[in-house]
Amino acid sequence: MAKRVTGPEIEKLIQLLAKVPGLGPRSARRAALHLIKKKEQLLGPLSSAMGEAYDKVKICSRCGNVDTVDPCTVCTDLHRDQTMLIVVEDVSDLWALERTGAMNTAYHVLGGTLSPLDGIGPDDLNIRGLIDRVNEGVIREIIIAVNATVEGQTTAHYITDQLSGIDVKITRLAHGVPVGGELDYLDEGTLTAALRARTVI
Amino acid sequence: MAKRVTGPEIEKLIQLLAKVPGLGPRSARRAALHLIKKKEQLLGPLSSAMGEAYDKVKICSRCGNVDTVDPCTVCTDLHRDQTMLIVVEDVSDLWALERTGAMNTAYHVLGGTLSPLDGIGPDDLNIRGLIDRVNEGVIREIIIAVNATVEGQTTAHYITDQLSGIDVKITRLAHGVPVGGELDYLDEGTLTAALRARTVI
């Protein structure tokens, strides 16, 4: 800004809001003004909710999920099938898969993917914890649900290698046409995979 | 979510973040996870900044700007030309005009536009305060910088009417082709205005 037009506390709030993913400098200003206009309904409650999250948030020492208890809600859910484990890159993937309601299993969050160029090796991911869990002998199937990227697939291969001596079924998500997707807009790799994995009607 | 996968405090944080303009339910989850991952660098400072804004924010009783002091930084800036007043709908417009650095004047925030369908009449806007300021006798020119919408123009006409007895010059922003804009994408109204207000090169 050419000149100061508001208080330093409000400028500080705008600067911090601009670092939230989904907001940029312009939308951070809009967001700050909206929060100020909705002071009682939004700014106050959000400030408290952030303070409470700051005080209470924990990373589950077993699966890597984000929660306010450790072990987390998912790990201590007795109604889940503990013989199946879905391995994901990130907590957001765990939450996305849970929203489908399709499975009722345990999870394991790696915390990223192998990426030698970024200096991320096996020790930077929660792979040791995964092998320990499998060695407990309860898990019968591991579904590796990593992103269909080069890094994701490299990580999947590495995990499969590490588990090669253990008697556990390892599966991965199917490739194919997204539901609602138009063939015209899909890449050749997806179409090839969908053709190869075609099913009888 | 089909089942609870995280703590109620974190779900509450996500719900509140989803009410911030620019974020929806999906990006609120992404934002919450990012805040939690950057707990010390972002979640803590943002929580404090919101708390401080909540405690200190004030609406300037003279011009309607948002600040932590009243009268605000703009109203008490002795280097501004107090004989010119820019009238805007919203605080965000004041900030946007200030970022241009083009003018160095006083401001007046109406707090919206006249909109009979939404039940917003003259008494719901800060028009009385504007007339009082003009009656002080210092202001020589009022630039009405409201949006080029029907409501904005209606409000501009109403203000001009209200000030008709007072010796003050009233101007409005020019219409024309936006800088960097392509004629092909502009509406007929803008092109007509740009043609009528053409200038000699």
Automatic annotation (TrEMBL), chains A, B:
Zinc finger (C4-type): 60-75
One GO MF term attached to the UniProt entry: DNA binding
Record-linked SMART domains: TOPRIM
Gene3D superfamilies: 3.40.1360.10, 6.10.250.240, RecR Domain 1
Domain Toprim: 83-178
GO biological process: DNA recombination; DNA repair
PROSITE patterns found in the cross-reference section: RECR, TOPRIM
Pfam families in alphabetical order: RecR_C, RecR_HhH, RecR_ZnF, Toprim_4
Keywords (A to Z) from UniProt: DNA damage, DNA recombination, DNA repair, Metal-binding, Zinc, Zinc-finger
Function: May play a role in DNA repair. It seems to be involved in an RecBC-independent recombinational process of DNA repair. It may act with RecF and RecO.
Family (UniProt): Belongs to the RecR family.
Protein's name according to its UniProt entry: Recombination protein RecR
